[in-house]
Write a structure and sequence with these properties.
single chain; alpha+beta; five-stranded antiparallel beta sheet
């Protein structure tokens, strides 16, 4: 019956496992059958190995069954032949034996004699098969292993080769999709979900068969790839399916089909106790209709079957909710199928499991225990084998107790112990409420209990923990030696019904454990210090777990702890497996398990938060985007604001994808697919973070860089596709520009090797922007080198064309990706500097556009004359004249007529068709090259504009000064390249680009040049679309072209609304501009007479023609009358404005009188003539007449002593002669030059006011002072009085009045002076304010004003460097000469003062005052006063600083 130790050793030496026993049979026959079956199965395994590559998890399980069968058969023969079994051997007691990963600890010595037939653990002092050899040396395991190094989790080629899909892969664990549901099973699950029926699923222990069951039907199929040829669904009808509720799922277990590995048996038990057993499902002769059935007598309507477990080959145990256990025997003593059910210990009347304890102690077997009346069965778990034939340990877990049984097919069952598990757990976790959830057995013999702990905290959340129970002997009660809490929280509630309870699975008895929830699985690796590895995998809510694989029938027979996997069934994804590489985990973990009293604590994580985030992001990116991945990838950040760790992790993952350095990326021969896959991964980084709601945890710069990485991969993918298209050309050699460019670029950075192009796309996609910069720097030199010959010129054209294609294939996909994913990456805000907006790339785009336009011109000159003529006749902005390299006028220049600078009409359709009738290869057909180049212009322009816009947006926040410069350059570039599309027959595209980039000025030009026939339609549509902005651009176009009629008489109501505002804005910005001249017309049209009067007055003062000024001022005066009649305004503002208007009109009259005067002088000098001098229009006649007038009206003293001022006088006479308006200062100069009327009669040949020129000058200055700056006003007043004082011969007067002269003579002499006449006129006739506009001789010197007069007022106007021919003087004057003449005037005034001028001036003032006092006594009470030195100091005068004030005041009314 029992094997001796020596026999076991010999069998290990021959690598023949011997564990297990069978009934008496012929040893030789069994051995032959075993060897034949082993060879057959070994061949099958070899075929599976060859076909499936390195499918290690499935292979290890399948091969393990082969070894197990060999163990059983050979063990039976050994048991029959062995004569060394003794009762003493049975009495040997062994404790738990820890393997290498769980070292054996000190045991307490056995005490007392054991029962005569005490259960013996057959695993005493065993070590693993691969550890002990003949002489203690290591032997290789009999289990086939993959050749080579341990499996690398980074390599998924084996899984993909055998059909497995990688769903998650970490450094030490992985999840694979093993197989999906067959269509029939999928329909069964979908129908059950639709009805709301309960669905359960599971797999067998050898990893070949799976089932899905509802209350009415169970589907079994083979999912192993080795049996794919017979992969069909077997549908089993379940017992009592009509009476069961849909919410009650049956109990199903897949059992071994005898000795067959290719078939499976199925045991199904309903909750009411209806049993059915199919011994062979796949190859049974009777099919699925052949089964055995039996009914379990529960004898309690409140009791239900709730647990089922296969304990041993041919032995199943069924448990009920109230703790009753039933042994179900599937094999007879002869090995034939049977279905025999018996309650354990033969006590069907017993209420609870633990009633068996009383029978063992001599109590009444039929009386239930009161303490067990409310207990509930939780779990059943098979333990290790025993020395008793066909027997096995069985662990039974209820809510309150944990019991250990030994059950057998042929022998009575034994209860070994029963402990209060709740009390044991509570003792290990003081202060916490504990509850047991599941139980399993480790290979060392220790018991693992999955427990729920609830601490008295505010949250009151249940925490899941693993409790390890150990006993010193087989029959002694175990104690809790370790209690390790898990990091995850258990959200289920403990109770009797409707509770989700996690399950504990130990696929190989440890060290890898799995805690399986409804939507989560926690993978653990146990070491001496607790959990060396803990990872939780979440499942999507739509794909919960339906079941897991049953534990092997021999859990203590360990496999090598390198990979331990758990196979599960998901609702939608089908069958998946979770594997943990225990060898990697245990490589650094301590192996010695501490004693019960040792304190075990979890070591803090050695990884940084960034590393943790990186692992989460990697798993989600590389495995979470599959459509059939049942796993749920989640990430959370609790950092306030931006999370630096999350940013670092995201950038690391994205950069690794960009650089192709991530070990998760599978290298592919198809480089295009490889690039597209990397692009998908790069985008998934941000998508995952966004789906988790953590976008705000990334800064704008980080999000932009993540977008840049994906952009570059999109560009690389498109560029590689383009190169493949070139390689696939049916004829001719493919252009090698890209390949050569990449090779040169890599060589320039020190990278050399074979196949540089593929190396670049695999490893250096991040440098795609640098590649464009490199092309920009080297392409012009390459083209210049080729253009030395005719063939070289053609090659240069092809290179230019191909460079455009490369540029387009890089930037177009990149910017398209950025635009399409703007919301994902949060790029609505001003972005950081992008790789695509590098200044060199901007220059490259501009250069490519210029070269392409030039290429179109060169090609059309040889092959298409119509397009060539259009290009030559088009004047684009910033074009150069080929003759003198000067800038040609374009449609954007001011005052350019439409006939001069308009663009030609579109190309006729027949001309377009000519370009497409010469093949489809631009490298072979020049006409096709021309067409393709023309087609490239629009996308190149679009890219150029977009890059400019992005660059400006970045610089506006980074460097506003640079942003302004780039914006100015952009305006020029945009208008030029929009207009160049028109001669290339791409006017519709130019319209669309102008609309998109809001270039309204170019849009207006396109309307009037490219499509004149539909101009009105375009204008109406654009005004409605763009509103005021387009109307302003249209009015600016009219103003620039001086199309005043179109501007003022627009028929569009929307434009008319904007016109008033536009005119007023232009007038305010430039008071002397052209809008002032014509804006009043629109004011009159809208009956705004006040604004019209102001504009007319300003236009009259600014007019260069006297007649025009007089007309404008007269119209302004008329508008004033209209204002009076319309609004009845009579305030001081209107009166003041009208007074100034009258003064301006008087200035016009004065200039008219001067022109009449000079004409009369010349006419009287020359005599009567049939052709009046003022009607001669030739320059020579005018010049001679001007010189004559100046000569006749000036004194010899002025001509000889002040020659420079005489030339000034001549110039002023010329302006008057030509009816040009004089400024106030010029007019005052002209009036105050000496002897201007000496040769003219006192007749009425000219206005009398001109004769009284000095007092008139003072009067004009007093009226027009508001229009002059302070310095100009004071200088003009000094000039007037200085020349008044110099108009008399004061030395002669002094001589006459020297000596004893009577008063009458004094009075007579002084009253005949010019000074007397001026003072009398100013104070009497003109009633000028005194002393505001009067100066003393000592205050009239020009010394303080010479610099202003020479440098600012007269010097620039008389310079010989003037460009305007109409403004050039007859004779240029130097600044030195002007200064000399003003110094001469000061010298003469100083001499006059020495001759007594001050005294004479005071006496003349007294005489005039006495004279006026007789007529107006109120003028001067004493008749004796002293005038101030300057009129500007008087408080009675309030000069205005601006000539616009009166207009503003008028407009405000």
């Amino acid at each position: 019956m029992f094997s001796s130790p020596s026999v076991r050793v010999r069998r290990r030496l021959t690598a023949k496992p011997v564990e297990g026993s069978v009934d008496s049979t012929d040893t030789s026959t069994i051995t032959k059958q075993t060897l034949k079956r082993s060879m057959s199965l070994a061949n099958q395994v070899g075929e599976v190995t060859q076909s499936n590559g390195q499918r290690e998890g499935v292979q290890s399980t399948a091969v393990f069954d082969v070894v197990e069968q060999q163990k059983q058969q050979q063990g039976r023969a050994a048991d029959e032949s062995s004569t060394h079994h003794s009762l003493a051997r049975k009495r040997q007691s062994t404790g738990s034996n820890s393997p290498k990963w769980l070292a054996q600890t000190n045991r307490q010595p056995m005490s007392g004699a054991q029962p005569e037939e005490e259960h013996i653990d057959g695993r005493s002092d065993q070590q693993r098969l691969w550890e002990i050899g003949f002489d203690g040396s290591a032997l290789e395991s009999t289990v086939p292993r993959s050749v080579g190094a341990p499996r690398d989790w980074a390599d998924t080629s084996a899984n993909q080769a055998n059909g497995q899909r990688t769903l998650l892969r970490g450094e030490k664990h992985a999840v694979f999709g093993v197989a999906g549901f067959p269509e029939a099973v999928r329909q069964q699950v979908a129908a059950a979900e639709l009805r709301g029926a309960a669905v359960t699923a599971g797999l067998d222990s050898i990893g070949r068969f799976a089932y899905v069951a509802t209350a009415a039907e169970c589907s079994v199929w083979t999912y192993d790839g080795a049996a794919s040829a017979i992969n069909r669904v077997h549908r089993l009808v379940l017992p009592d399916r009509t009476s069961l509720a849909e919410t009650d799922s049956p109990l199903v277990v897949l059992v071994a089909a005898g000795d067959e590995q290719t078939d499976v048996g199925v045991v199904v038990c309903s909750t009411s106790g209806q049993l059915r057993y199919w011994d062979r499902v796949a190859f049974g002769l009777g099919g699925t209709d052949r089964f055995l059935s039996h009914t379990i007598e529960l004898n309690d309507v409140a009791d239900q079957c709730c647990r089922i477990a296969e304990v041993y080959t041919g032995l199943v145990v069924v448990g009920t909710t109230k703790g009753r256990l039933f042994r179900v025997t599937l094999l007879s003593a002869q090995g034939t199928p049977q279905l025999d059910v018996r309650a354990l210990c033969g006590g069907p009347a017993r209420v609870g499991v633990f009633g068996r304890v009383s029978s063992l102690l001599g109590g009444n077997a039929g009386t239930p225990t009161a303490a067990e009346a409310d207990d509930t069965l939780i779990a059943l778990a098979g333990g290790g084998r025993t020395e008793i034939r066909h027997s096995r340990e069985l662990l039974v877990l209820t809510r309150a107790r944990l019991a250990k049984w030994v059950v057998s097919r042929t022998h009575p069952e034994r209860l070994i112990y029963s402990i209060d598990i709740v009390r044991a757990l509570a003792a290990a976790a003081p202060g916490a409420d504990a509850a047991a959830l599941d139980v399993s057995v480790m290979s060392s013999g220790d018991i693992c209990v999955l427990a729920a702990l609830q601490t008295p905290s505010a949250a009151r959340r249940l925490q899941v923990a693993i409790a390890v129970l150990r006993s010193s002997r087989v029959s002694t009660e175990p104690e809790v030696v370790h209690l390790w809490p898990l990091r995850l929280d258990y959200d289920g509630a403990l109770g009797h019904n409707g509770v989700e309870r996690p399950r504990l699975a130990l696929p190989n008895g440890g060290p890898v454990m799995y805690v399986v929830f409804h939507r989560a699985v926690a993978a653990l690796v146990v070491t001496a210090s607790g959990f060396a590895f803990e990872e939780t995998m979440l499942f999507r809510p739509s794909d919960p777990l339906l079941g897991i694989a049953t534990t092997p029938r021999f859990p203590h027979a360990l496999q090598e702890p390198s990979e331990n996997r758990l196979v599960l069934v998901c609702r939608s994804a089908g069958i998946i497996s979770i594997s943990v590489d225990a060898a990697k985990v245990l490589g650094t973990a301590p192996s010695a398990l501490p004693g019960p009293d040792a304190a075990v604590h979890r070591s803090p994580s050695a990884t940084s938060p960034a590393r943790d985030f990186q692992a989460q992001v990697e798993q989600a990116v590389f495995f979470g985007d599959g459509p059939h991945n049942p796993l749920s990838f989640a990430i959370a950040s609790h950092a306030p604001g931006v999370d630096a760790a999350l940013e670092t992790a995201a950038l690391r993952v994205s950069q690794a994808i960009l650089d192709n350095t991530s070990h998760f990326i599978v290298d592919r021969l198809d480089l295009g697919a490889h690039l597209r896959e990397r692009l998908r991964y790069a985008q998934a980084v941000m998508q995952f973070i966004s789906d988790a709601g953590l976008s705000d945890k990334l800064s704008l710069g980080t999000r932009a860089h993540l977008c840049f990485h994906a952009e570059k991969l999109a560009a690389a993918s498109a560029l590689w596709d383009h190169q493949n298209e070139l390689w696939a050309r049916p004829h001719g050699s493919a252009p090698q520009l890209l390949a050569n460019l990449v090779a040169s670029f890599l060589d320039s950075v020190g990278l050399q090797g074979r196949d540089a192009l593929r190396v670049f796309f695999r490893q250096h996609v991040a440098a795609v922007g640098d590649l464009l910069v490199f092309m920009h720097r080297n392409l012009p030199a390459l083209r210049r080198a080729l253009e030395n010959s005719e063939t070289g010129r053609h090659d240069s054209q092809l290179i230019s064309f191909e460079a455009n294609r490369i540029l387009l294939r890089i930037l177009q996909p990149a910017l398209a990706f950025r635009f399409q994913n703007a919301a994902l990456y949060g790029r609505e805000h001003p972005p950081p500097s992008a790789w695509s907006e590098h200044p060199a790339i901007l220059d490259l785009l501009i250069l490519r556009l210029e070269d392409s336009y030039k290429l179109c011109r060169d090609l059309s000159g040889s092959y298409c004359s119509s397009i060539y003529e259009r290009i030559e006749n088009s004047a684009l902005p910033n074009d150069e004249d080929p003759a003198d390299h000067s800038r040609r006028l374009s449609i954007f220049d001011d005052a350019v007529s439409t006939s001069h600078a308009s663009l030609p009409p579109a190309v006729a359709p027949d001309e377009e068709s000519r370009l497409s009738d010469h093949g489809d290869d631009p490298y072979a057909s020049p006409l096709m090259l021309l067409r393709e180049t023309i087609d490239q212009m629009a996308p190149l322009a679009n890219l150029c504009f977009r890059v400019f816009v992005n660059r400006i947006a970045y610089l506006q926040s980074a460097s506003p000064t640079d942003a302004h410069e780039v914006a100015s350059r952009y305006d020029a570039v945009r208008s030029r390249f929009l207009m160049c599309l028109v001669p290339l027959a791409r006017a519709p595209i130019a319209f669309r680009l102008a609309e998109e980039y809001h270039d309204l000025a170019s849009l207006v030009v396109l309307v009037f040049t490219a499509d004149r026939e539909n101009a009105a339609v375009h204008l109406r549509r654009y005004v409605q679309r763009f509103g005021r902005e387009f109307a302003t651009a249209l009015l600016a176009y009219y103003e620039r072209r001086q199309a005043w009629a179109s501007l003022l008489y627009t028929h569009d109501a929307d434009v008319a609304i904007c016109l008033k505002e536009y005119v007023d804005q232009k007038t305010a910005a430039d008071p002397h501009g052209p809008m002032t001249q014509i804006g009043w017309i629109h004011d009159v049209k809208v009956r705004d007479f006040g604004s019209a009067a102001a504009k007319l007055a300003r236009a009259g003062r600014d007019s260069q023609e006297v007649d025009q000024a007089r007309t404008m001022l007269s119209l302004s005066k008329l508008a004033f009358f209209a204002v009076d009649s319309q609004e009845g305004i009579r305030d001081d503002t209107i009166i003041e404005a009208r007074t100034r208007l009258e003064d301006a009109l008087e200035l016009c009259e004065v200039q008219g009188s001067l022109m009449t005067y000079f004409t009369a002088v010349v006419t009287s000098h020359r005599g009567p003539s049939s052709d009046p001098v003022w009607r001669r229009r030739d320059d020579d006649s005018d010049k001679k007449a001007v010189l004559d007038a100046a000569m006749l009206t000036s004194s010899s003293e002025l001509r000889h002593t002040r020659p420079a001022l005489y030339l000034v006088y001549v110039e002023f006479v010329r302006r008057v002669w030509n009816a040009r308006s004089l400024s106030v200062e010029d007019l005052l100069d002209l009036l105050t030059f000496s002897d201007c009327t000496a040769s003219v009669d006192a007749s009425d040949s000219y206005d009398v006011s001109v004769r009284d020129r000095y007092s008139l000058a003072v009067d004009i200055l007093s009226r027009a002072s508001f229009n002059l700056p302070e310095q100009a006003r004071e200088g003009a007043l000094k000039t007037i009085w200085r020349r008044i004082f110099l108009s008399d011969d004061w030395p002669s007067i002094q001589k006459k009045l020297s000596g004893n002269v009577p008063d009458c003579v004094l009075r007579e002499v002084l009253t005949h002076t010019s000074l007397y006449s001026v003072l009398d006129s100013c104070l009497g006739l003109r009633d000028l304010a005194h002393p505001d506009w009067f100066l003393l001789p000592a205050h009239s010197f020009a010394a303080d004003d010479i610099e202003y007069i020479v440098s600012t007022r007269l010097g620039p106007r008389f310079s010989q460097d003037l460009n305007d021919a109409s403004e050039k003087p007859l004779s240029p004057i130097t600044s030195v000469a002007l200064r000399k003449d003003y110094v001469e005037e000061d010298r003469q005034l100083h001499a006059a003062i020495e001759c007594g001028l001050d005294n004479y001036y005071a006496e003349i003032i007294r005489i005039v005052s006495d004279k006026l006092s007789q007529r107006r006594p109120s003028l001067s009470p004493g008749g004796d006063f002293i005038p101030s030195k300057s009129g500007s100091q008087s408080a009675n005068t309030e000069p205005l600083d601006s000539d616009n004030d009166e207009d503003v005041q008028m407009e405000s009314k």
